[in-house]
Specification:
By secondary structure, the protein is of the alpha/beta class. The protein contains 10 helices and 11 strands. It is globular.
């Protein structure tokens, strides 16, 4: 199951906090502070290394000065809820002709990494995944054992069919309201309206919703020049076009779609992040986490 964790990505982002902006901005003043082991949000103090502590938490610079092992303790707010919503429709199986990952495989690695960071912080994580008649729901809980349950859910999921109508998910969306963070992962093409409506239903003044859009290089650049046949992965409809003639029109429509998507999500105060699945995940994740950290600060 740990195949969903890419070592290079984890090495770059594991010590960056995944904190909900609403928490950082002070919506949760009534929550009591607590000491929890993990990367935390604000550094509090050092303590001596104890057997069982993760080597990654050792401050190696301090070790070099003192020749003793110390780990960093953090004081952070009590646990928050981090929900992951995954689009499992067949359009997520798209990948570039020379791409290593489909959007769906990339999404699984992305959620595995983000959920790992959240559970290390001591936060609760949950999963809602839907598409093609399948629906996976993992309620909120914390701890490594629960995280492994989330990984098993991810391993069983397939990209097939269409994303369901939001009314079908209405009862499943209700638990997404606790204070914290909701991360929605999709390509936001076929199911853009449905996912936007799901986000609207999940949105409250006490949580933050971040939409992560996955695109591949072929979608972004439209590299074809000669005759090319396209197939809609969800409807199976096909169309034969001249790549050279269609490129300008396609790119214009893609730009218009992105503008509408930004406006639609923006009306509900939802941040849109776009990842290229053909670019190294560690780079995309690192800058994503830094942007979140800067906003929280």
């Amino acid at each position: 199951m740990e195949r969903f964790l890419e070592p290079r990505t984890l090495a770059r982002v594991k010590d960056l906090p995944l904190i909900a902006r609403t928490v950082a901005e002070g919506f949760l003043h009534g929550i009591q502070s607590s000491h929890q082991r993990g990367i935390g949000v604000e550094f509090s103090q050092y303590r001596a290394y104890e057997p069982g502590d993760e080597p990654a938490r050792i401050d190696w610079k301090l070790f070099a000065r003192s020749d003793r092992y110390f780990v960093r303790e953090a004081e952070r707010e009590s646990e928050i809820a981090v929900w992951f919503v995954l689009d499992c429709s067949r359009s997520m199986s798209m990948k570039s002709a020379d791409g290593a990952w489909s959007k769906f495989e990339y999404a699984k690695h992305l959620l595995a990494t983000l959920s790992y960071i959240a559970q290390r912080q001591g936060d609760m994580v949950g999963l809602l995944a839907a598409g093609g008649g399948q629906q996976a729901f993992l309620p909120l809980a914390s701890g490594e054992r629960h995280w492994h349950r989330l990984l098993r859910q991810l391993a069983r999921l397939e990209a097939k069919g269409q994303f369901p109508d939001p009314t079908t998910l209405k009862s499943a969306l209700r638990p997404l309201h606790p204070p914290g963070l909701v991360v929605m992962v999709s390509d936001f093409f076929e199911a853009a309206e449905e996912l936007t409506e799901c986000a609207r239903q999940a949105s409250t003044p006490r949580n933050e919703i971040t939409a992560i859009q996955l695109l591949c290089r072929d979608e972004r650049e439209f590299p074809w020049r000669g005759p090319v046949r396209f197939e809609d992965l969800e409807s199976n409809e096909t169309v034969l076009v001249s790549g050279r003639d269609a490129r300008a029109t396609y790119l214009d429509q893609l730009h218009a779609h992105q503008q509408r998507l930004n406006q639609s999500l923006g009306r509900h105060a939802i941040t849109l992040e776009t990842f290229d699945v053909d670019q190294p995940m560690d780079e995309a994740m690192y800058h994503f986490m830094l942007r979140r950290q800067n906003k929280a600060g």
